[in-house]
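Entry 14: structure prediction run for Conjugal transfer protein TraC. Input pasted below.
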Amino acid sequence: QWFSSFLLQVENHSSWHRLFVDPLSRAMYSSDGPDFEFVQQKRKEGLSIHEAVWQLAWKKSGPEMASLEAWLEEHEKYRSVA
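Run finished. Output tokens:
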């Protein structure tokens, strides 16, 4: 399951919604035991928290991460122009 559900209430109106997030956010905020252990092991191996979460995201969502990296590479050239 790759989404969270939440209830949005505005004045007298309420509705249920699903929140879908990117694979890095899913890895970073995961409360799954094996995910926590994976990050802890990578930290013991000397990786930074950022590198460990990045590896977890690749492990769990490889195709989506590849797509995101391709998009970043394509758009990186526009960042240096601004």
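Notes: DSSP finds three helices and two strands in the chain. Will compare against the previous run tomorrow.
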